[in-house]
Amino acid sequence: MTPQQRRAFLLLAAHGAAATTLPRWAWAQPRRQQGNPFALGVASGDPSADGVVLWTRLVPDDSHASQAFTVRWELADDQGFQRIVQRGQATAHPALGHSVHVELAGLAPGRWYHYRFIHGDALSATGRTRTAPAADALPEHLRVAFASCQRWEHGHYAAWRHVAADAPDLVLFLGDYIYEYASPRDTSGLARVHGLRLAATLADYRDRYALHRSDPALQAAHAACPWLVTWDDHEVQNDYAGNTGKGDPAAFLAQRSAAWQAFYENMPLRAASLVQRDYSALQLYRRLPWGRLAQLHVLDARQYRSLQACRTTGASGAGAVRPKDCAELAEPGRSFLGKAQEQWLDAGLGADARDGRTRWSVVAQQTLFSPRHYPSGVVSTDSWDGYPAARARLLRSLTQHAPRNAVLLGGDIHQNYVCRVLADMARPDAPVIASEFCGTSISSRSGTTQDKVDAVVRHSPHVLLARCEQRGYGLADITPARWTTTLRVLDDPLREDSGASTLARFVVEDRRAGPVPA
């Protein structure tokens, strides 16, 4: 497919095959109605006390798609760009999908800035970003939106419009930014469809990110504040584990490298994440300190994990097993994070506890950490339930180090869960050592019913709330004295203009592990 055909395909994909006019993302941008090179928006991410990453991705016209371009950028104190703080230029290389990553340094800590990109006479949308507080600062407040799972067809991205309106300091995206699937033939109950095939090549994944990033609500959320991103499975292939995916092993590794390259190209990541030139590895687990208020430990639960228990190599996905029928499930050497990442997290939690400065130790990871006890006795092999020895090791780390306040955030399951994390999850009377908030999806369907979820809750006394069949996001308001999580849900995910409401609100008090209803 030529660049011209691919762009035409994306125009149709964004509004379905019957589209006859340009979709909104092509005409709702500043300065230009057609041919806007900044049609995919702007973003920022990975803030530090003195810097942040600025991102954009050019959409060049057909006759220049194989060329590199110089892009100018500006950072200012004000939205009108009268007080320029820094400016410079960067190159958008075709080898990197014409993406641009600008790593800023030398900025003031704890400050908001405005930024934009310029190419020729084209001007990007204006983004708003900020730096983290100084290392010795104790901020009065940090607002974090956490979200995951945004399959295109299953709903509009109204949740992102509400996130932007909530004005967070930081967005934590916990995985499944794209889905690799083609649209199903049966389109009943879908919000929209696209015409892209099942993703397998670098061009496929680039097209998928372009499709998702064409959404105005998602662009607004990216422009509102810096993001801290990690991935799950659908950025590559459903239920892949480490080096193992569906089909031929060599073909899968090539597909994975292509998908990982596209992930880097389309996310506001630092160059430090590029640990292999062939994209056979990306360094995604990392820490973000927010002064003395919080330490965010961001995990990668895909790249290093052991194969799901009792799964055949090359099979199409993971599943559910009964522990008595799968001895492999309990093997002590199996890891959800990989040995090196487990040790890194253990060291980080220990450092949080020893320095006596960090109020909130935040473990930002992909899925529900606490167990779900199904009446049938089965366990999911793709979640923490499928890696009980690895979960036990993290529980021991939390118990032994005892950071001042530990909170785990997750996504993946398309349901809202609030849990007390116990030192021994098999004993309901065990001490509470942490709090967990697992958020529902931005748009992806749940795939279960509330009756089944309620049955899990009846067998899982550590679960305080569990809701399915709702889409939305979580909002964490963090102060030195307390953590407040507000679970926001959409009225109708099939409506682009959907309203949102508060499902529940929970509070964690300083030095009192475990959430309580607000």
Class inferred from helices and paired strands: alpha+beta
**Main beta-sheet annotation:** 7 strands, mixed
Helix percent band: 10-25%
Lateral arrangement of strands in the main beta sheet: 11-10-9-21-22-23-24
Number of strands: 24
Look at the structure and give the mean pLDDT: 93
Total count of helical runs of at least 4 residues: 9
Radius of gyration in whole Å, from Cα?
22 Å
User: Which descriptor suits the 3D outline?
Assistant: globular
Percent of residues in β-strands:
15-25%
Question: Unreliable stretches, pLDDT < 50, 5 or more residues?
Answer: 1-33
- The span between the termini is 55 Å
Describe how the helices and strands are arranged.
Elements: H1 3-15, H2 24-27, E1 42-45, E2 53-57, E3 69-76, E4 84-92, E5 99-103, E6 112-119, E7 122-123, E8 127-130, E9 142-147, H3 158-165, E10 170-173, H4 202-213, H5 216-224, E11 227-229, H6 249-266, E12 286-290, E13 294-298, E14 320-321, H7 339-355, E15 360-364, E16 379-380, H8 388-401, E17 406-410, E18 416-422, E19 432-438, H9 450-458, E20 463-467, E21 472-478, E22 482-490, E23 500-509, E24 516-517
Parallel strand pairs: 9-10, 10-11, 13-15, 15-17, 17-19
Antiparallel strand pairs: 1-2, 2-5, 3-4, 3-6, 6-7, 6-8, 9-21, 12-13, 14-16, 18-19, 18-20, 21-22, 22-23, 23-24
Helix pairs in contact: 1-4, 3-5, 4-6, 7-8
